[in-house]
Amino acid sequence: MSLSARHFGLAVLVAALWGVSFVAIDAGLEHCPPLFFCALRFVAAAVPAVFLVGRPGVSWRWVVAGGLVLGGLQFGLLFEGMRAGMPAGLSSLVLQGQAVFTAGFAAVLLRERFTGRRLVGLAVAVVGIAVAAVDQVDRGGAGPLGAFALVVGAAAAFGLSNVITRKAAPPDALRWMVWISVVPPLPLGVLSVLTEGAHTDLRALGHFSLTGVAALLYVAWGATLVGYGLWGHLLRHHDASVVAPFALLVPVFGMSSAWLLRGEAITPLAAVAAVLVITGIALASFGGRRVAGTGGPAAGEGAVRDADGRGGRGGADGPARTTPRPLGAGAAGTPGPQR
């Protein structure tokens, strides 16, 4: 079933919300240490929403695992990498490497096997990430390359969180994101005090500008609550295969908004990397069915399924809620993704 003009616009809007969130993160990091800003982001996403959305509908162990991996590890590494010099637009692209890591973790932990076309797509995406690494070296040598490695680590954590989400099979994407947002603030706050210093955190709070507040609220509310809410709405009305491709627009919005709002150059190498990564993920995500596996969507989608584990279209009660993790939302809280 094709999307109506309204739903098409909503799908593009969600991709834009998640893509622009990288610019918001970049702006927020100018006012706050990365781990502390990350902790504040999850506090703002969880409160007061956690009191309004109902229970997550999954075992609490999955909530804790998802919160630690997605919230603490993925976003902690992403924020650290961006603070260390990784450009916002390039970060939105490199984080799409999560599709490669999702496939790897799914193969090892879920014993999934994939078609040749999907493997070719993943290989193309890996080449794109390698090109992005070369571009990052050209931008500034060993320091930015270390920042690049942190964002690749964030992509790996994103891939692991996709597998956790697939195993947890939460019935609703928004509730899942809100509840796993409850977990990271405490460990991130402790790490921030130990590594960034309580004095630095308190000083950041005392000097929080309107730009910093706007960036925090955008990442927490716009990208997470609004973005995931709209994404879940679309997936209640359409097949995942119709909606999920719009997540490929996330790095497009991420790189273009970084260029427009932050003056971040899109170099020829970055453009080539973007084409390779997006093309590779498109092949990997929509290039045919798995040969075998334990159930769930193609690697890179990270399903959020009905509690009974069913996927696909629904019966008399309407479409089944098969809600893939967006390919790039995770960055934003998401996506995210995101997410």
Automatic annotation (TrEMBL):
The chain crosses the membrane at residues 34-53, 60-79, 91-110, 119-137, 143-164, 176-195, 207-230, 242-260, 266-286. Residues 318-339 have a biased composition (Low complexity). It is a multi-pass membrane protein. PANTHER family: AMINO-ACID METABOLITE EFFLUX PUMP-RELATED (PTHR32322:SF9), INNER MEMBRANE TRANSPORTER (PTHR32322). Gene3D superfamilies: 1.10.3730.20. Residues 294-339 are annotated as: Disordered. The lineage of its organism: Bacteria, Bacillati, Actinomycetota, Actinomycetes, Kitasatosporales. It holds the Pfam family EamA. This is EamA family transporter. It comes from Streptacidiphilus fuscans. One of its GO terms (cellular component) is membrane. Residues 10-132, 147-285 form the EamA domain. Belongs to the EamA transporter family. InterPro entries: AA-Vitamin_Transporters (IPR050638), EamA_dom (IPR000620), EmrE-like (IPR037185). Keywords: Membrane, Transmembrane, Transmembrane helix. It is found in: Membrane.
